[in-house]
Structure formats: C-alpha cells, structure tokens
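sorry for the late reply, my laptop died twice this morning and i had to redo everyting from scratch. anyway the thing you sent over, i finally got around to it. pasting the sequence first so we're on the same page, its 151 residues, then the predicted structure underneath. double check i copied it right bc i was rushing
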Amino acid sequence: MRYIFILALCALMGCEEKEVIEPLAITPSGWPEAIFKNKSRKSLSETFAVHCAKLGATIVEESETRVKCDANITEGEKEWGRMFLGTGHSSDIHVYIQFNLIKRGADTHVQVLEWMQLQMPGGQIRRKDYNTPYYNNDAQAYLYIIGGQPV
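ok and here's the structure:
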C-alpha cells in the first residue's frame, strides 16, 4: 500500500502545470531585438563592449557591426555542457554573447544572441542556443532599459 501511495504521488507531481512565461516582445528573428533611434553603431558598439566588461566577460570582437563576448561560466556549467553537448575529451566550453548592429537610416537595429559552444575531438563544433523565454525576456529588458524601442 505504501508503495502505491508513493507511486501515485510521483504520478501526480508529473501532472503539475508549468508556469507559462509570456514573452516581453515577439521579434521577427525570435531573438531579442530593438531599434535605437538616432544612435550610431559606433556608440552602441562601445556601450555593449562596456556592458560585457562589467559582466566580467572577455571581448572577443568589437566592430561597428558586431560585439562578441566570451562570458565567464562556472565549473558546473562547463560540466553540464560536456555531458549534454560533447564528451570528456571536448575542448573547453565557451558561452558567447553577440550583439549584431544593423544601420537603418539614422537608426540602429540591434539583435542579441547567446549560445554555448565546444569543439569535439574530431574538430566538429557543437552549439546550443540560449533561446528560452527567460533569456529572451532578460535580454529584451536590457535593450529597453538602455533606450531601445520595439521592432
């Protein structure tokens, strides 16, 4: 009887409804995006590079069209990446944050992407995009806070 109760409890826990996260914005690409009115790509590029530095990330590339940062991750996140993306022989794991800047007249359109990446022993690159409602809402809110407007 005791085992039936435990089994029934486990089954009921599996029926629990998940919280639905409403997206802050629906964008054409599905990634966080915003338009910055009368802002140059150069000034926004500098803003995003400073943001990466404040996060403790290494700036891999900075230009007028792109800012790419290598974020610091914990050993636990690295182990998770090795288990689910690669093998124990995979190269070191990186989490990249990339800001793409597109000029539209006097305005600048910005897209934000984030992904985890590693290299397999044979040279194959494996990548897992961080395209979840939690991540998208945080990144979208950041774009709005610094002056972005909906696309």
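The two ends are 58 Å apart (CA to CA).
thats about all i looked at so far, will dig more tmrw
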